[in-house]
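Quick one: structure tokens for this chain, please?
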Amino acid sequence: MADAPHRAPWIEQLFPQEVVSFALDDQGQPPPLMEEEEIWVKGAVEKRRLEFARGRACARQACAELGQPHRPIPKGSERAPIWPSGLTGSITHCPGLVAAIVGRLSCYAILGIDAEPREGLEPELVKRIGSKSECDRLDGFSELAPEVSARLLFSAKEVVHKCIQPETGTYLDFLDVSIHFEVGHARFSVEPITQLAGSIPQLRLLSGRYCITDQHLIAVGWIDPP
């Protein structure tokens, strides 16, 4: 019997307006893909098929909660999900967790989510994703080891990509932007660093929040509608 996605209120509460989130762990059998979704993992290894199926199951359930009929969630030319009319959303998967968020376009122009295991990031990767000043600011996370807070920085920058690339078609490097965490409020803002990033006005409109669970680091972001 397939595992049914469950509501994820710890993710939903990160947003200022209604967002529906459903999640699954990475064990058990997910609900089957719809025919139009199967083509995107044809020939893929079993691990990829399962995580894709779990993500789509969560996304379809979230869409249904917002009144959309049960329908496939295909991929676009840039591999991002194509959401039903009037909705926007995002899907993430990592060891132990698959989750989707969906909201109405009347509330959000775009949404992004990234989940990571609560584990340290390799030192050589830290230098590739954050500047020295960014890494120095991570000292504010007293409950996290430095290498774990660096993974949260990575997660926040993945959210920036998920919000900006579909909206503008621009691919940003990790070092094109700087993340400023407000630890006491569990939120973050984005500062453009390079000329390329500075040319994207949506970056300054992006709001971000995060939560830390026993096993995962979760970052989310959104841009308000015009």
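The chain has two domains: 6-108, 118-215.
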